[in-house]
């Protein structure tokens, strides 16, 4: 009996577990999913919740309801991995494995920016909306907002769904226009890099929309401190931006259990952020964050019986559920081939999709892989309907259940 352990019950973990359970008979493999949370959240809804375009109560499911019969859900906190002994170390009971799939995601750490957590907890102006509670709390604040400067910032760390800050900025500008408070207000988004969006032709399309709607983009702005008492965000260069409402993206890192308590991330690139000091240092201070895999097979570069996908792997792709959706069948196919001593023919090409919601009722779908853009930068109502009305049901009822007609 082959023992398969999967760290993480998020999008990639649930999809991969269900694909494997469907393809492997129960007398051939035991499949265990490990996660400290027993609730799965639909994270693509978070930037929509503040505007009541989706309802909070519909964005979560019990993990047990997502997993097929015959999959063991081990609710526990992973503390480390010993790939030589083939053990997932947990706060409670350890899990031994023959094959390991790491889908540990990103950890949100607003506390690494001085003042960000305090601003969230102590004021009604700071909402790091990548957190479910902040996204839901922001709904009342948006309803009561009567104008001023709305600020979105992006951290120096890699983030999941790099399009979400753009969507938050555009939807807020649209909300201001709809409620009559736009004329005396500003919408500002900052990034530590040069471009509002990194992939053409969507970059040019976003620049066109932002120029037409006077949404301000501040490049090369690295957040150093949030002065929530004076409603000011300061950069590492000493620049300041005042705000009336602030929607920061929290810094994001790999899980310590993988990045610090396993050898699976050795060879990866550290991020240039000093967690201990809580400030941008400019020098690599943090240990490597990402599980080092072949970007096409998603097999670990040293341990043949370890695979990884989703936000935690080292493949140079966008960290989105759409990417995990394409990676999950590749991992399942290659793991089964390896089990059976056959060549691994599953091939991930870097596919990711990002619906860029530009205003209520309109969106641009950005699709791309490692090499090319795959869709035209068309702003349409159909794209909005796809993202807001179609994809959630598809996510819960097909993708999370391990069904996807796309070949790998």
TrEMBL record:
GO molecular function, one term: FAD binding
Gene Ontology biological-process entries: sulfide oxidation, using sulfide:quinone oxidoreductase
Domain Sulfide dehydrogenase [flavocytochrome c] flavoprotein chain central: 146-245
Residue ranges of every copy of the FAD/NAD(P)-binding domain listed in the record: 3-122
Protein origin, superkingdom: Archaea
Pfam families from the UniProt entry: FCSD_central, Pyr_redox_2
Name of the protein in question: Sulfide:quinone oxidoreductase
């Amino acid at each position: 009996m082959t023992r398969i352990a999967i760290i993480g019950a998020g999008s990639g973990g649930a999809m991969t577990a269900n694909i494997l359970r469907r393809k492997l008979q129960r007398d051939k493999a035991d499949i265990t999913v490990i996660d400290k949370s027993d609730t799965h959240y639909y994270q693509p809804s978070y930037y929509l919740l503040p505007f009541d375009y989706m309802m909070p109560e519909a964005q979560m499911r019990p993990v047990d309801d997502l997993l097929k019969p015959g999959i063991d859900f081990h609710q526990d906190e992973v503390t480390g991995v010993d790939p030589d002994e083939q053990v997932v170390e947990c706060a409670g009971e350890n899990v031994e494995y023959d094959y390991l799939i790491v889908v540990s995601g990103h950890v949100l750490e607003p506390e690494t920016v001085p003042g960000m957590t305090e601003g969230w907890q102590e004021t009604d102006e700071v909402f790091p909306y990548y957190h479910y509670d902040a996204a839901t709390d922001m709904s009342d604040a948006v309803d009561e907002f009567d104008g001023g400067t709305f600020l979105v910032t992006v951290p120096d760390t890699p983030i999941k769904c790099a399009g979400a800050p753009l969507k938050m900025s555009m939807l807020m500008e649209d909300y201001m226009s709809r409620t009559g408070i736009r004329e005396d207000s500003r919408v500002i988004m900052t990034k530590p890099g040069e471009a509002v969006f990194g992939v053409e032709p969507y970059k040019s399309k976003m620049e066109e929309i932002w120029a037409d709607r006077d949404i301000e983009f501040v490049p090369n702005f690295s957040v150093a401190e949030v002065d929530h008492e004076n409603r000011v965000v300061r950069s590492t260069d000493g620049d300041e931006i005042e705000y009336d409402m602030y929607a920061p993206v929290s810094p994001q890192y790999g899980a310590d259990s993988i990045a610090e308590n396993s050898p699976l991330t050795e060879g990866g690139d550290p991020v240039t952020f000093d967690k201990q000091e809580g400030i941008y240092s400019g020098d690599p201070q943090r240990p490597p964050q990402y599980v080092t895999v072949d970007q096409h097979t998603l097999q670990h570069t040293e341990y043949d019986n370890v695979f990884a996908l989703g936000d935690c792997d080292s493949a140079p792709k966008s960290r989105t559920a759409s990417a995990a959706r394409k990676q999950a069948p590749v991992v399942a196919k290659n793991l089964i081939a390896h089990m059976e001593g056959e060549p691994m023919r599953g091939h991930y090409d870097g596919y990711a999709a990002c619906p860029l919601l530009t205003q209520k009722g309109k969106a641009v779908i950005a699709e791309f892989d490692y090499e090319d853009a795959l869709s035209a930068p068309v702003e349409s109502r159909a794209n909005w309907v796809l993202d807001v009305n179609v994809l959630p049901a598809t996510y819960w009822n097909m993708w999370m259940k391990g069904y996807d007609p796309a070949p790998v």
